[in-house]
Amino acid sequence: MLPITLTIAGSDSGGGAGIQADLKTFQELKTFGTSVLTAVTAQNTYGVQAVYALPEDFIVEQLQSIQSDFNVNALKTGMLFSASIIEAVSKQLENVQAPIIVDPVMIAKGGATLLQQEAVDAMITHLFPLATVLTPNIPEAETLTGMKIQTYDDVEQVAKKLLAMGPEVIVMKGGHFAPEQQAAIDHIFFKNGDKLTLSAPRVQTKDTHGTGCTYSAALTAFLAKGLPMKEALIEAKRFIHAAISHGLGIGHGHGPTNHFAYNTKAKVEVEIIE
Ligand SMILES: Nc1ncnc2c1ncn2[C@@H]1O[C@H](COP(=O)(O)OP(=O)(O)OP(=O)(O)O)[C@@H](O)[C@H]1O
Ligand SMILES: Cc1ncc(COP(=O)(O)O)c(N)n1
């Protein structure tokens, strides 16, 4: 049976992030992608020009349509925008057995707000207890914990605080961490105390629009296909690295990543430290 994936996220008219990045990734990884739209953005590679959030009851309606018909094997959340959307979505996910990947999207590359300030608390209270994996970038992890991250020790302390909020796995994404380093390193922490570090060469490119969305969508797809957690994390890192390495040169700002690359280009070895 074809694995079924679901993304609950915002639309990016520019096609590089949000629902569009998620569905492209789901398709490339041979899963059947479904979607629940939370908001629509007018967006391109320069940034976000406008945001229109959908009414909560209509978001719930979409989710109920999927839940009443499909056996979703894994799902992710992306842009959730407001406290009321987070509350409505979380309530609907309470009895879900499939893995839930929470990408705590807050701010777009150009600085636009994709999560209202007061929604941060709602995310921690209502959604984190349901999360299997949480995938913050460094600024998001700082906002969620009120702690500053400068060293590896800080990364570990922050991850511990996030684990205490409910998720089983925390992926501290390294795109924003130590950009002078030659590597893009993700530090992963498990509830049972295990750690996993995944490192790949840092690519010098401005085409990184949608990296976070694409990464969490790839992780969702690999989990939906039944890969064990560590293997799914490693393959998702390979997917995003291929996508960043082979930019498409689309648009005039921060271009999208290449969702075809994992299947069409030679694979880069990811360094795995356990
Ligand atoms: N220049 C780069 N070269 C290689 N890998 C990268 C680069 N930038 C980010 N990554 C990887 O991409 C994934 C997403 O990380 P990142 O920290 O960029 O997420 P994000 O901040 O949510 O995305 P965005 O910046 O698009 O909002 C991680 O695995 C990270 O290591
Ligand atoms: C609709 C939408 N959702 C999410 C992001 C963030 O994208 P990313 O963090 O992957 O660059 C975005 N720019 N637009």
TrEMBL record:
Recorded GO MF terms: hydroxymethylpyrimidine kinase activity; phosphomethylpyrimidine kinase activity
The reaction(s) this protein catalyses: 4-amino-5-hydroxymethyl-2-methylpyrimidine + ATP = 4-amino-2-methyl-5-(phosphooxymethyl)pyrimidine + ADP + H(+); 4-amino-2-methyl-5-(phosphooxymethyl)pyrimidine + ATP = 4-amino-2-methyl-5-(diphosphooxymethyl)pyrimidine + ADP
Keyword Transferase (UniProt): yes
A Pfam family annotated for this UniProt entry: Phos_pyr_kin
Pathway connected to this protein: Cofactor biosynthesis; thiamine diphosphate biosynthesis; 4-amino-2-methyl-5-diphosphomethylpyrimidine from 5-amino-1-(5-phospho-D-ribosyl)imidazole: step 3/3; Cofactor biosynthesis; thiamine diphosphate biosynthesis; 4-amino-2-methyl-5-diphosphomethylpyrimidine from 5-amino-1-(5-phospho-D-ribosyl)imidazole: step 2/3
Matching SUPFAM superfamilies: Ribokinase-like
Protein name (Swiss-Prot/TrEMBL): Hydroxymethylpyrimidine/phosphomethylpyrimidine kinase
Native organism: Kurthia gibsonii
